[in-house]
Design brief:
Helix content: 40-55%
Strand order of the largest sheet: 3-2-1-4-5-6-10
Distance between the termini: 47 Å
Mean pLDDT: 95
Strand content: 15-25%
Shape: globular
Low-confidence stretches: none
Number of strands: 12
CATH architecture of one domain: 3-Layer(aba) Sandwich
Structural class: alpha/beta
CATH class of one domain: Alpha Beta
Radius of gyration: 20 Å
Length: 353
């Protein structure tokens, strides 16, 4: 039995599905079901006794304590977080409450639970904290990629809140001996991603014939990691990672935002041609850049490759094609997530750019 927080969101849901498929052992899934948490992400597990879904907040310490006591998990995988930079710029308070205070609450209840275990159970227990490369700040064009020893320099409220949670996790290992592992990943993409992020936003806007908004000149660089590879990396860290260590998980796929958008358009031109639009790339519109937009992220995943034997299996072109095909094949899922809340955010974020 493992406990997963935030397991109805994009990466968390993919991880739960991946865990059930590869490990086959039960998962208690705690999710608050905010705008990006979608029960439809887990529809295939609706009648699977190995998946126990609990709607709740990681800040509800009584609930967390009860779940730990009742289910006795041997590991916690902590995804629950506010995760979108633009939302953190418009409303940073929620990010501090969930990412910092929420992680603290979860750590406190985990420490109390772990302290009461027997010696063997204590030794085998793991708390895996899923974080981001954004805590390291921004790179220049020729700078070496982020490694596990790169100094933290977060530049957005989101990144700062995740950096704070990373430091708390590290401190609980150093001070209390809690067996924690932290993973810092690059930009994820793949099925089930909420359509405020770049790739699904471009897919859905293009299909609707809407402008494809690109920040600034589109030359900002990100390392792209297919979500299935990320899930495999987390499983490797959980199974073979050393307590107290950090492992960077990257896709070895640095692309400018504009390259990504053009690649999405090319696949859509092939798979879903529109007689009214010669090329979807004609919909690209440059908009005012967001405040403090980091120039480049890149991950050096050498440590997890050397020590745990993990490396990404998906090339960016094949992973992107799978992603576009998934969105084309699941219009009902798209309809279910494009709620008033989502449209309200899009209007607020792009109306004045």
């Amino acid at each position: 039995m493992i406990l997963v927080t935030g397991g109805a969101g994009f990466i968390g849901a993919n991880f739960v599905l991946d865990w059930i498929a590869h490990e086959g052992t039960p998962v208690v899934n705690l999710d608050k079901l905010t705008y990006a948490g979608n029960p439809a992400n887990l529809a295939s597990l609706q009648n699977d006794a190995r998946h126990i879904f609990v709607k709740g907040d990681i800040n509800d310490r009584a609930l967390v304590a009860d779940l730990l006591k009742k289910h006795q998990p041997h590991a916690i995988v902590h995804f629950a977080a506010e995760s979108h930079v633009d939302r953190s710029i418009n409303g940073p308070g929620e990010f501090v409450q969930t990412n910092v205070v929420g992680t603290f609450s979860l750590l406190e209840e985990t420490r109390a639970y772990w302290s009461g275990l027997g010696d063997a159970e204590k030794a085998g227990f793991r708390f895996l904290h899923v974080s981001t490369d954004e805590v390291y700040g921004s790179l220049g064009s020729n700078d070496p990629a982020f490694s596990e020893t790169t100094a933290y320099a977060p530049n957005s409220p989101y990144a700062a809140s995740k950096a704070g949670s990373d430091h708390l996790v590290r401190a609980y290992h150093h001070t209390y001996g809690l067996p924690v592992i932290t993973t810092n990943c690059s930009n994820n993409y793949g099925p089930l991603q909420f359509p405020e992020k770049l790739i699904p936003l471009m897919i859905l806007n293009a299909l609707a014939g809407k402008p494809l908004p690109v920040y600034g000149d589109g030359r900002n660089v990100r390392d792209w990691l297919y979500v299935g590879d990320h899930c495999a990396g987390i499983r490797a860290a959980l199974a073979r990672g050393k307590p107290g260590e950090t492992y960077n998980i990257g896709g070895n796929s640095e692309k400018t935002n504009l390259e990504v958008v053009h690649a999405v358009c090319a696949i859509l031109d092939e798979l879903r041609p529109n007689s009214l639009i010669t090329h979807y790339s004609s919909l690209i519109t440059y908009v005012k850049d967001r405040p403090g937009h980091d120039w480049r992220y890149a991950i050096d995943a050498g440590k997890i490759r050397r020590e745990l034997g993990w490396e990404p299996q998906e090339r960016f072109d094949s992973g992107l094609r799978k992603t576009v095909e998934w969105y084309l094949a699941h219009p009902e899922w798209v309809d279910s997530v494009q709620t008033g809340e989502y449209r309200k955010w899009v209007d607020a974020n792009y109306a004045k750019r």
